[in-house]
Specification:
Residues 18-156 form the DUF402 domain. The protein is an alpha+beta fold. The protein is built from 3 helices and 11 strands. The chain is globular, with a radius of gyration of 15 Å.
Length: 175
């Protein structure tokens, strides 16, 4: 299987458990692409919702996707520090069209001081019921949520000090 080459510009697509397209992010630059992780960067890109509505991101971001973890991490560089938006979702897939994953509703927002909040629990419960998430999936997501929270509190992986800044510098060099 091939992976996107460093410097290539890709789209990111998230789907829901029922297979429907949820959201697409355009013009994202690959900073590292391998079978294990993809690190990418973007800045003020257009995001398209499933209903066709579009909006533009407000700041540069570094995106971290894993082929093993059931979450991805977006580090957003703002004037008052780095904020993280973490999506509970399937490991990424790359099919030469886009980087794809299934979004499982639960999100964690991390603030520059390291505090965090869990978001969209009601949406998760609703979709869990509507789309009939199997018990095995629920267990995987809970396990990965705990792993994500551990990485946040221990400042590991994409939360490690300097991680986002280093990849952002590489993003700027590509532009």
């Amino acid at each position: 299987m091939s992976f996107p080459a460093t410097g290539s510009i890709i789209n990111i697509q998230s789907y829901k458990h029922n297979g429907y397209l949820h959201r697409t992010w355009g013009d994202t630059a690959i900073l590292k692409g391998s079978s294990q992780i993809i690190v990418a960067g973007n800045d003020r890109i257009i995001v398209t919702e499933s209903d066709g509505r579009q909006w533009r991101t407000r700041e540069p971001a570094i995106c971290y996707f894993s082929s093993k973890l059931w979450f991805n991490v977006i580090g957003m560089l703002r004037e008052d520090g780095i904020y993280y938006y973490c999506n509970l979702g399937s490991p990424f897939m790359w099919d030469n069209e886009a980087l794809k994953y299934i979004d499982y509703d639960l999100d964690v927002k991390v603030f520059p001081d390291g505090t965090y909040i869990l978001l969209d629990e009601d949406e998760y419960k609703l979709h869990h019921r509507m789309m009939k998430y199997p018990p095995e999936l629920d267990a995987i997501l809970k396990k990965n949520l705990n792993e994500l929270l551990s990485m946040i509190t221990q400042k590991k992986g994409p939360f490690e000090p300097g991680f986002v800044e280093e990849w952002y510098e590489r993003f700027l060099e590509l532009r």
